[in-house]
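User: Hey, my collaborator sent me this sequence without any context and asked if I could get a structure. I don't really work with proteins. Can you help?
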Amino acid sequence: MERTLISPDGENPGDEVQQFLRTLTKERNWKGCGISLYQGIWFNDVVLRPIISFQQHFQVRDVNTILASFPNLGTTWLKALSFSILNHSIFPPNNSPLFTKNPHELIPLFEHDLYHDAQSPELEYIQDRRIFSTHVPYDLLPSSFKVSKCKIAYKANHTDEVLFCKYEDIKQDTISSLKKMAELCSIDNLRDLQVNKIGKSIRGLRNSDFFRKGMVGDWVNYINPPMAEHKMKLVEKKLCGSGLTFRR
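Assistant: No problem. I've predicted the 3D structure and written it out in structure-token form, which is a compact way to encode the shape of the chain:
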């Protein structure tokens, strides 16, 4: 996909970005929020400017692991599991920061946390941290991702497992370590932690809002059979030839 740049040198004054955003096709979503068509995808207007800044300014490093997912498809759980696995040598399961912090506080989202308030934030102090997250599709990631050796974990719906987990650093007791981490990071345990009952995190959202039923197949209570069939056919068409398959 051809990438639209605001200016050739990547340094974009705020007013120029704003002028560019005004040229995009605009609509309103089912919640009444403004959305814009950017590079073939509809984005909420609130995150579009941060996404453009992220695209043009972030330089990924080989040590980084990026968690990519569509909103409301197990992102919170994926963050908890990944943080525990990648930081097992620093934080044992009985002393994990997950007891006092929501997973979204521990693994920042590019478009909501890092680039929301600044077009080119000072990230040198966290650039070498291991994990970041995003809801941005692969084709729209910064060009540095395409030549980097960073790891990207993509979480999709209709799957029973995380598609990627880097755990070569796990010590010799791999099985027991992972079991302890899994116990801590179960949906029920995370939901019952005090920090996730009463705390607030991203943009003032309640931590409890990130924990729903966590039930496989619960979509049948919200989508009727014709809608589900239409969705599956669309997914199969879009992913044809990718090697990815989904259970019906």
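In plain terms: The radius of gyration is 19 Å. You can pass these tokens on to your collaborator as they are.
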